[in-house]
Amino acid sequence: MSNSKRDWSGYYRAVEGRPPRQTLLWALEAFEGEGVAPGLAIDLGAGSGRDAVELLRRGWSVLAIDGQPRGLEALRERAPPGASLETRCIAFEELTALPPASLINASFSLPFCHPLAFPRLWSLIRQGLLPHGRLAGQLMGDQDDWAGNAGITAFARPKLDRLVSGYHLERLEEERSAGATAKGKSKFWHLYHIVLKRLLL
After folding, report:
1. Neighbour tally for 136: CB within 10 Å
2. Which of 103, 117, 141, 199 could serve as 190's disulfide partner, Cβ 3.0–4.6 Å?
3. CA gap 174, 79 in Å, rounded
4. Domains of the chain (ranges plus CATH)?
5. What is the pLDDT of residue 1?
6. CB–CB of 41/101 below 8 Å?
7. What is the pLDDT of residues 16-38, one digit of tens each?
């Protein structure tokens, strides 16, 4: 199923009210531990703001990118008064540049970038991260039930290790579990939960 045909409205309803993703919290804790002040965060696949609202609440400026306008509309409604929020409705496959950012958050969104477009997106992320900036989010493993579906990008562990080379790997937790989707459908998950820090080189 293509991204444009997915039931994103149903997904937004299913995750409404859930807390921010743990990978984002790990990255924010690392910045706070270093005494780094909030800067610009890019939220790739921001949806209705599950993570973006937390970033705004903590004083970050947020560029929220998503291919679905309904989610971004909901995010703008949820944003705290006076928060520094910019939204951009565009598919990952159409992105050509990202502004310099201290944090790029991509919670459960990168697997939905088409495999043919993923290398360019990954390059944009690397170019956009400031030195000592962090990338937080999830990548999909090759044993996931959705791996191999049209438009889904997934990685076997050796390819994942090559993909993240050049970063300092602060967190990498590999999940293999039988569970359910946000909307309650049974699914086997194979995920990599990551926090990467860009090195000076």
Report:
1. 26
2. 141
3. 32
4. 3-198 (3.40.50.150)
5. 40
6. yes
7. 678 999 999 999 999 999 999 99
